[in-house]
Specification:
Blueprint lengths: L1 H38 L2 H13 L7 H11 L2 H15 L2 H12 L1 H37 L1
Helix pairs in contact: 1-4, 1-5, 2-3, 2-6, 5-6
Length: about 140
């Protein structure tokens, strides 16, 4: 009976140790994700993306388009989703590496160009997806 008690005690102690370790790792990831989002704010990334997308809108409608996008898109929601996803996906070291890179001169320069990049690539991605959906619909009808 003493041996079972010792094994049970050991198992309980190990469960607490693992739980404490996971909580500490999660807190560390959350802090690293917060650091990354300070270096690369979602609001800045969205503003850059909206600006690039607005180039596809007639010039006389761009100001209104930008104002509507900024009013409608919920930055706080996207920020929360991004943070939660980062904490689930990346390790603390990876998040810190991302923050270090995007906080560096080269990383900041690359980030400034990201909206341009997305503005150029997104129409092609949307077109390909739309074409694929149309092809799938056509195949299902046959």
């Amino acid at each position: 009976m003493k041996q079972l008690s010792a094994v049970t005690t050991f198992a309980i102690v190990m469960c607490f140790a693992v739980t404490a370790s996971l909580a500490q790792d999660n807190a560390s990831r959350e802090a690293a994700a917060d650091r990354y989002l300070k270096v690369v704010p979602m609001s800045k990334m969205l503003d850059d993306t909206f600006t690039e997308i607005s180039k596809q809108v007639p010039e006389d409608q761009r100001v209104q388009f930008l104002a509507q996008m900024k009013a409608i898109v919920r930055v706080d929601v996207l920020d929360r989703i991004a943070r939660e996803s980062m904490v689930k996906t990346f390790t603390t070291d990876e998040l810190n590496a991302l923050a270090n890179f995007y906080g560096s001169q080269h990383g900041a320069s690359a980030m400034e160009k990201f909206g341009v990049y997305m503005g150029q690539v997104m129409p092609a991605i949307q077109q390909e997806i739309q074409s694929a959906i149309q092809q799938m619909d056509a195949q299902q009808k046959n």
